[in-house]
Specification:
The complex is a heterodimer of chains A (about 160) and B (about 775).
Chain A lengths: L2 E8 L2 E8 L4 H8 L18 E4 L2 E4 L12 E3 L12 H8 L9 H14 L5 H7 L11 H14 L1
Parallel strand pairs in A: 1-5
Antiparallel strand pairs in A: 1-2, 3-4, 3-5
Helix pairs in contact in A: 2-5, 3-5
Chain B lengths: L21 H4 L17 E6 L5 E7 L1 H5 L3 E6 H5 L5 E3 L5 E3 L5 E2 L5 E7 L2 H10 L1 E6 L6 H5 L17 E8 L1 H9 L3 E9 L12 E6 L4 E6 L4 H12 L9 E4 L26 E9 L5 E11 L28 E9 L16 H19 L3 H8 L8 E2 L5 E2 L4 H12 L1 H13 L3 E10 L11 E2 L2 E2 L2 E7 L5 E5 L8 H13 L6 E5 L17 H27 L6 E4 L2 E4 L2 E7 H10 L10 E6 L8 E10 L6 E11 L6 H20 L4 E2 L5 E2 L18 E4 L17 H18 L13 H10 L5
Parallel strand pairs in B: 12-13, 15-16, 23-24, 30-33
Antiparallel strand pairs in B: 1-7, 2-6, 2-8, 3-7, 4-5, 9-16, 10-14, 11-12, 14-15, 17-18, 19-29, 20-21, 22-23, 22-28, 25-26, 26-27, 29-30, 31-32
Helix pairs in contact in B: 8-16, 12-13, 13-14, 15-16
Classes of the chains: A alpha+beta (about 160), B alpha+beta (about 775).
Amino acid sequence: MAKHRISVTINGAAREAEVESRLLLVHLIREVFRMTGTHVGCDTSHCGACTVILDGNPVKSCTVLAVQADGAKITTVEGLEQGGKLHPVQEGFTEKHGLQCGFCTPGMLMTTSALLERNKNPSEQQIREAIAGNLCRCTGYVNIVKAVQYAAEKMR
Amino acid sequence: MSEPRTDAKICGMGHSMKRKEDPRFIRGQGRYIDDFVLPGMLYMDIVRSPHAHARIKKIDTTRALKIPGVLAVIDGPTLAKYNLHWMPTISADTQMVLPIDEVMYQAQEVCAVIATERYIAADGVDAVEVEYEPLPVMVDPHKSLAPGAPVLRKDKEGKKDNLAFHWQAGDKADAERALAASDVVISENVYLPRIHVASMETCGCIADFDTAQGKLTVYMTTQAPHAVRTVLALVAGHVGLSEERIRVVSPDIGGGFGGKVPVYPGYVVATFARDYHMKVELGAKKDGTMTSLKIKTVADHGYSNASANPSKFPAGLFSICTGSYDLKHAFCEVDAAYTHKPPGGVAYRCSFRVTEAVHAIERATDALAQKLNMDPAELRMKNFIKPEQFPYKSVLGWEYDSGNYGVALKKAMDIIGYDSLRSEQAEKRKKGELMGIGISSFTEIVGAGPSRDFDILGIKMFDSAEIRVHPTGKAIARFGTKSQGQGHETTYAQIVAEELGIPAAHIQVEEGDTDTAPYGLGTYASRSTPTSGAAAALASRKIRDKAKKIAAHLLEVSEQDLEWEPGKFFVKGAPQMAKTIQECAFAAYTNHPQGMEAGLEAVHYYDPPNLTFPFGSYICVVDIDRGTGDVKVRRFVAVDDCGNIINPMIVEGQIHGGLTQGIGPALYEEISYDDEGNISGGSFMDYYVPTALETPHWETDKTTTPSPHHPFGAKGVGESATVGAPPAIANAVVDALRHLGVTHLDIPITPEKVWTILKNKGVAE
C-alpha cells in the first residue's frame, strides 16, 4: 500500500510520520505518536470518544484519514493543560463529577473546550446540543452540563 | 448519618470528596486495555458468521496466510487438538470457543486471525473464505420450547428439548387459589427486550506468556479478575496452565455495567442481555389490597446459558418480584429456552434480574390501579410493607433488612407536585393533549451474598479487603472487587479514613491485579459496598484494635483507659494524653510491645449475613407529540434510599447514570432479530443510546434508612436507578394513553409504537 510522508503540529510540537493511505487519524495519534489519551469507543463515528481539535474544529478522529491531517494543527486531551495549569473544562469535570469511567472524557473535554472557544456563555440547551455527538454511558450528562457551566464561568 | 463525623482533612464517610481517579482521567492518562503495548505483541481479529445457523463446509485460509504479517489463522479444529474448543459458561453451561462444524448464531466467532498489526489482522479477516450451508433457524423461544421442536444443543448427550433450565419460587397452588379468590385480577404480557450494555470501551484482552518463568499474564477488561484467573486454570489446566502461574490484570475499565463479568470466546463480545417474556397476573380485593401475584416467564437464552448469576439462582434474584408490597401469596417461574441467538441472559446493570422483576410488579401495579380506577400512588401507599414490619420476610423467601417506602414516595410526590400535575393532566386531556405521570416504587436486592446460598461455580460470594498501614502512617488498601467508573479509589479510601482517622488522601486503593489483591468475586450487582466496603471497615477495625494496644503501651495505661476519636486514642479524663494513629503506626514498626507481632495490617474476607435492600420512588412526567408519537420526559424525580452514604457526590452520579441507562431501554434501545436470526441493533448505527438531547435534567433526593446488618449501615446503589426507572417511564406513557383504552406497552416505547396507537385510535395529528 502506498505510503505518504505527512507532518502535523500536535499539541504545539511538530511531528512527522510515514503512513499508509488508509491509516486513521486516531491511530496516527494513538499508535504512531503513542498518545493514548484519545480513545476509540466505536467504529461508526457515533460515540465521539476520539474527538480532537483539528485546525480549531472538533472532529471525530476515527473518521479522518491521517493523510487528510497533513499540515494541520491538532490538539488532543494531552494538550489541554498548559504550563501545569489545568484547562477550565478539566477543572470543571473534576469539580462537578462530570466523569466516572473516564473513557468518553477526553472526547467530551475536546468538544466542550471547542464550544467555549466559540461561545463564552452557552445555555444548557446549547451545551447539550454541542455534546450530542459524544456519548457517555456513566454520568447521565447532567454533571457534564454543570462542568461546562463551571468552566464557562471561570473563563469569563 | 446526616453530618460527617470526620473533618475535611480526614474526609471520611459523608464527604463529597473529589475523586482520586480524576487527575489521571482528565489528562488522558488513564490506562485502558487498548493503551498497552508489549514487546512483540500481536493482534487478533475475528471472522464472524453471517448466518444464525449453518454448517461450516470449508474454511479456506490460503489467501489470508499469503498476506505479509498474517501469522496464523486459528479455527475450531486447531483448538480441538488441544481440547480447547469448548469452554464452560459462568452458569455451568458450555459454549464453543470456536466451532468445528456448525455455527449457532449470527456474529458467532468462526476463526481468529493473528497478525503483526491491527490493520493486517483485519485484512486477514477479509481474506478468510468460509463456505456455509445455511440450516433452519429458531428465533422464537416459545416455539423452541414447544413439543417436537428440533433440538438445538445436539452436543449435549441425551438432550431431547431446548429447555436450558426451569426455575421457580413460591407455592403455585396457593398463589392460584388466592388469585381465584380475588375480586379483581389483571393479566398482562410484559416483554423486556434484549439490550446491550454498550459501555464506551469495548471488551479486550492481551495475553503475555513468559516462557522463561512459565507464567501467563492476562490483561483483560474484567469486572471479576480473580474469578477469571480460576476459570482460566480450570479451562486450560490440562495444557499446563496452573493457577499460581496465572496473573490477571484488570486495568482502568471504560464502563462495565455487567457486560465485563462473563468470559467470552476469544474474549470478544457479540451481543447480549436479557429477553424476558413475562405473563404477570396480580389479584386484589375491591379496596385495592393486593392478594396474590403469579408470573410465568419464558427467557430467551440464545444458544447457551451464559448468564453471570449465582449458581443456585439461574434466574437471578427474580423472586424479589413481590417488590415493595405486602403480598401474602406469590409464585413465579422461569423456563429458559435455547434459540439461535447469541448467548443471552447476561446481566445489564440489573442486580441479577431485578430489572425484570421490578418491571413486572410495577407495571402490574399500575395496570391494577387502572382497573380499580384508583390513583396509582394511593394504591402503592395502601400496599407498601409498613416500616414496623421490618425485617420483613417475603412470601418468596427474602428477608428485607430495612425500608420506609411511604416516606420516599411522599417525598417524590411533594418534590414533583403530584396533585397539581394530576390537575394539569385533566385540563390537558380536555384539550386533547397527551400528558402522563408515571410512578415506580421499587425495592432492590443487592450485595450477593451470604455464603450459605451464594456462589459462582462453587466459589462463595464473599469479598475482601487487605489494608497495610506503613510506618509513616500512610496506607495501602487492596480489594477483591474492580471499579469500572464507580470511584472505588475514593470511596474505599473514605471508609478506611472513617474507621482509622487516616486522611483519605493518604490511602492508596488498588484493585484488579490478582498477584497483589486479595481474592474476591468482583464488582457487579451493586455488591462492592455491601461486601468489600464492609470488609474495608472490618479490616480497619482489626487494625484499630491493634493500634489501641500500641497506644496503651506508649502511654503506659491500660487499654480500658483509652477512648477513640477519629485519628487518635486519648486517656479518659485526660485528653492531652493522646497518641495519633500515625504515632501508633510508627511504633508498630519501631517500638512495638514485647510479645506483639510487628507491623500494622489486616485482611478481612466479609461474608454478609444478608443481602441489602435499597429502595426508592421515582415519578416522571411525559408529554407525547400527537404528530410523531415522540415521548418527551419533561421531569423526572428520583428519591433513593441506599442507607448510609459514603460519598454523596458519587452516589448522585451513580443515580444520574443509572437513570439514563433506564430511559434508554424504556424508550430507545432494543436488539431485535428477524426470522432468519439477523441482528438489528448490532451497532450504534441502529442501536440508539440516549444522548444529552434526549436525557432530561434528573432531579434527585434521598431518604436514609440504614441497613441494620451492614457494618456502617450502607446498601448498594449502583443499579437502583437502572432497575427503577424503566417502569416509571412506561407507566407514564400508558397513563398518558389510558383514556384511549391502553393498559400496557412493551418497552422500548418508540415513536413508531406510540404513533401507531394514536393513528388506530384516531387521535394522531
